[in-house]
Amino acid sequence: MSCNSSQFRYCPCCGGPLETRRRGDRDRLACRACRRVLYVNPAVGVAVVVRRGQAILWGQRGGGPYAGAWCIPCGYVEWGEEVKAAAAREFREETGLVVELGPVVAVHSNFHDPERLTVGIWFAGLVTGGLLQAGDDLVDAKFFPLDAPPQPLAFPTDALVAAELKQGKARLIPDSVDLSGKPWPPGS
Question: Which among 52, 71, 133, 162 has the fewest CB atoms less than 10 Å away?
Answer without folding.
Answer: 133
